[in-house]
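Render this sequence as a predicted structure.
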Amino acid sequence: MRRTLATLALALVACSALAQVGEYRSELAVGVNGGLVYNRVSFDPTVKQQFLSGSTMGVTLRYTCERYFGMRCAVQAEVNYTGLGWREVIETSEDTYQRRVSYVQVPFLASLGFGKEYGGVMGYLVLGPQIAFYLSDSDKRGGEWTDETLALRPNQVTEQYDLPIQKTFEYGLTGGLGFEVNTRRAGHFAIEGRYYFALSDMFNNGKADYFSRSANGTIIAKVTYLFDVIKTKHQ
């Protein structure tokens, strides 16, 4: 948490410093976001999977501090409810398995935009740390699920089935690209793609634990709507 706050503070200081040499802005926009997520969990030992689809929705806050050599510089924070998890590929029997894991995710992002700031289209990049808090999980099983079918699992990996989520705090890095339509009166409409890479695990990973790695990796496609609360006076 201290590292995340320090990163956000450094972003704000950098934004303020750049504003001394760029075109000054002091703009605050708030809004909502939502979209689809496709998640896999990186296990070691390996568990063969396919992406599990889910959804994400939440609120977005963005503060723009300046335009520097044609680039809009802003910091952005979100609070999102997101459903992650994994779906296994079991080729040795008719068994099926998936687990859904719900989180509240809080990304802290630097946002750099190129294009028309008002009344036009802008491309942008977002990048920064993300923290998350585990809420709940549920699993779904199909097939026979007998001792015989379990014994046929690839690499004999079955520990994940009855193992509760042991780490309720998660952190990682996220980033992506998007396009934003900026209007003078109706607000800002954005569509983007992101990738989230967890640096922490959902299960314990000590020497005595079964999994040394159990981290989320997420592809995200989302739309965002923002409206201006504070706008630079010279607009």
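Summary. The chain has two helices and nine strands. Strands lie at 23-44, 49-50, 52-68, 71-88, 96-115, 120-142, 169-182, 188-198, 213-230.
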